Amino acid sequence: MNTSPMEQPTPKEHRSGVVAVIGPPNAGKSTLLNRYLEQKIAIVTPT
User: Fold this and answer.
1) Total-model pTM
2) What residue numbers bound the domain in which 43 lies?
3) Which of 18, 25, 44, 46 is spaced 20 to 30 Å from 9 by Cα?
4) In the structure, what pLDDT confidence band is assigned to residue 47 with cuts at 50, 70 and 90?
5) Is residue 5 in a domain?
6) Which among 47, 8, 15 is positioned nearest to 30, based on CA atoms?
7) What Rg value do the Cα atoms of the chain yield, rounded?
8) Number of domains in the chain
9) Which of the four pLDDT bands, split at 50, 70 and 90, describes residue 14?
């Protein structure tokens, strides 16, 4: 892409939403979320 120094490319749109991961206890919901996001966001305890 050829742009002059005065022209700035427009930033990408940010989208937001809500996702619910539901299921019985100890079904792996937190593990699934952590693996999908590739970060340790949800607390996982050994059973």
Assistant:
1) 0.54
2) 20-47
3) 18
4) low
5) no
6) 47
7) 19
8) 1
9) confident
Residue 36 lies in a domain: yes
Of 46, 41, 2, 47, the C-alpha closest to 19 is 41
Tokens 């991961």 -> residue: 21
Q: What is the mean pLDDT of residues 31-44?
A: 87
Side chain identity, residue 46: P
| Interatomic CA distance for residues 44 and 33, integer angstroms | 10
d(CA 39, CA 33): 9
pLDDT of residue 23: 95
* 28 located within any domain: yes
**What's the CA gap between 5 and 37, in Å, rounded?**
35
Is 7 within the bounds of a domain?
no
Count CB atoms within 10 A of the CB of residue 9: 7
